[in-house]
Amino acid sequence: MADKGRIFRISGPVVIAENLKDPKMYNVVKVGEEELVGEIIRLNSGRATIQVYEDTSGLRPGAPVEDTGSQLSVSLGPGLIGSIYDGIQRPLDKIKAKSGDFIARGVNVDPIDLKKKWEFTPTAKSGDKVKPGDIIGEVKETGLVTNKVLVPNGISGRIAHISGGKYNVTESIASVSDVGSSFNITLMQKWPVRVARPVIDKLPPDVPLITGQRIIDTLFPVAKGGTAAVPGPFGSGKCVDKDTLLMMGNGRIVSIEEVYNEGRAKGKLVYENDNEELYDVSGLGNPSALSLNGNKFDIREPKHVYRGKTDSTIKVLTKSGKRVEVTPIHRLFTLSDCAIVEKEAGTIQKGDYLACPRKVSLELSDQKIHLISLLHSKKLFSADENLNARFRVLLKSAIKKGRLPLRFNQYLRVGRPVPLELIHMISGDSLQDPDTIISYHGKRIKVPRVMSPELAEYLGYIIADGNLKNGSYSIRFYNTSKEILDRYAYLARRLFGVEPYIYRHPKTRTSMIAQIDCKALFDSLVSLGVPYKGKAGNASIPELLLKSSDASLTSFIGSYIACDGSVDVDNGRIEIISKSRKIIEQFSFVLLRLGLVSSIGKTRKDGN
User: Fold this and answer.
1) Mind giving me the DSSP string for 381-446?
2) Segment 296-300 mean pLDDT
3) Helices and strands, number each (H, E), in the chain
4) In whole angstroms, what is the distance from residue 524 CA to residue 496 CA?
5) Cα–Cα distance between 86 and 525 in angstroms, integer?
6) What is the pLDDT of residue 130?
């Protein structure tokens, strides 16, 4: 009869129990009301120290502990092939079908199907004398694997009965008699994991075990009779700080926390406790992730996003100014004896070399600009008569059906600008974006419908040496170079159809200002990602540009450097300067798309 005790103390996965009657080392115990699986690993002064193999969250002192009286054992027999087990022989495929992607606490599933019938073919006959390890029959388990049925350890004598046919793993297929005793033999045997299996003769492993898994058969070949463990990947993102920046497969540069929050908002909760959360994001298509495949990057669709807690992290800062914060077991690529090897962050030493990519090819196209979605809340109007004519058909129908009040009849008049908010409310994204927009009593501007090298160049000028004045809806660009000012004015005319007013700076008298006062252009630039509050410290590369072509990125980088950078031709050095740490880190990523490796540092007082 099983003996029960009580939990005395808990420390993570280790539980100390008391009042167990005659506990023995390595006995399996069931801990708590959920009967979590554990193993006695120490006995001291009437108390048993137990290693629990499941999550101990919620356990309390005083909870019951039951000693099963048997050691941790595995089931051996037909049905093992084709299943995936954890370290205590829980069938993960069956548990997933029962409780989802994570092992539920206290779940109990038989490691081998106890009801399935197997065809048993005897190779021995009644009257044969047998001893432990003798083969008495076989079961064709798969097309490649034949399961040999052995006489269990500790049983010997003469076969009293044996018959072929279909049996499940618990039914008797034979019996052995010896000096008045009789033992039934089944297709399944239990064996304690800490006891080595006895052998008559150990044969050299010279025949390969073909698993059908290409990764194992090609990179980790296993011989029949051998043992192999193939671990899952370290460094796949689960061990990094929430502020760590990533370049996604669509060009976005975001933090791990942003990726997690997006997955949490869109995905399905799979598992949650006090320390961990896991969401299924398969099939959503976003965020797309960059995955290292050999010596190149592939774009993969992630299946899950995960957040967990840790009690310690390691901060790694390179001489080139790159930084990362990870858990001590997160592996980084290092250079050792002219070879790339993985090394746990906790073992990284000062002077070690970390491997970084030299080029990341994404082959992206310039992104469309969906103005109606971006600007529908900005009190702007469509001045595109072709779009407005198509919209008036929808508006007239909506008013006729009573979906809108009669006061909206005013926008049925030909030639009257239509609010973008109204277009978005009725048609969503079904209509083509307008070519021209206007604010109330404001300037009419043309609007690009797609990101382009010219638009990217204009954004580079504004983000580097421009600012937006919210009160006056004023866009101002400052520079001392006539060539750059002329180029800026040309782009403003070509892209938006507006002419900047250029005048000398009233304070410095050395620089010039190119100014455009236009709410429609102001709101368009803000929607594209140009900051108007604290721009110096909050500057960043617009997301729409990050997701566009390398040609547009190159154009943006060039105009930004022309304003807030320098080129040292003699030393082959380019320097980009900003008060914003975010945009500098973004530059370090996007330059890799062009095959340019960068370093990050602070400007010294001497200007170097």
Assistant:
1) EE--HHHHHHHHHHHHHHHHTTSS-GGGGGGGSTT--EEHHHHHHHHTTSSPPPSEEEETTS-EEE
2) 75
3) 13, 39
4) 10
5) 54
6) 92
**Ramachandran angles phi, psi of 76, nearest 5°:** -115, 130
Pairing of strands 512-517, 474-479: antiparallel
Name the average pLDDT for the chain.
85
At 149, is the secondary structure helix, strand, or coil?
strand
Rounded CA-CA distance 123/163 in Å is 10
Is residue 479 classed exposed, middle or buried when 0-12, 13-18 and 19+ CB atoms within 10 A define those classes?
A: buried
pLDDT digits (tens, 9 = 90+) for 80-106: 887 888 878 888 888 877 777 666 777
Asked if 111 contacts 91 with a C-beta cutoff of 8 angstroms, the reply is yes
Helix, strand, coil percentages, rounded to 5, for the chain = 25, 30, 45
Beta strands in 131-273 (DSSP E): 135-140, 146-150, 157-162, 165-167, 172-178, 181-186, 189-192, 208-209, 222-223, 245-247, 253-255, 268-272
Query: pLDDT tens digits, residue range 556-580?
Result: 999 999 998 888 888 778 888 888 8
- Give CA separation, 260 vs 36, 246, 308, in Å: 30, 12, 11
DSSP assignment letter at 251: S
Q: Are 381 and 410 in contact (CB under 8 A)?
A: no
Which amino acid type is present at position 85? Y
CB 253 within 8 A of CB 261: no
Q: Which two tokens stand for residue 243?
A: 């502020």
Q: Token pair of 475, please?
A: 């866009």
φ, ψ of residue 502 to 5 degrees: the values are -105, 130
Helices (H), 230-360: 256-266
Q: How is residue 229 annotated by DSSP?
A: -
- Decide: 208 and 144 in contact? Cβ < 8 Å: no
Residue 484 φ then ψ, to 5°: -70, -40
The CA distance from 183 to 124, in Å, is 16
* Residues 342-358, mean pLDDT to the nearest whole number: 82
| DSSP per position, 262-298 | HHHHHSEEEEE-SSEEEEE-TTS--S-EEEEETTEEE
Q: Is the sign of the CA dihedral 433, 434, 439, 444 positive or negative?
A: positive
> Residue 75 in 3-state DSSP?
strand
pLDDT digits (tens, 9 = 90+) for 193-239: 888 888 777 777 777 777 666 666 776 677 777 766 655 444 444 56
CA 187 to CA 193: how far, in whole Å?
19
Sign of the alpha-carbon torsion through 309, 313, 315, 316:
negative
- pTM recorded for the entire structure: 0.60
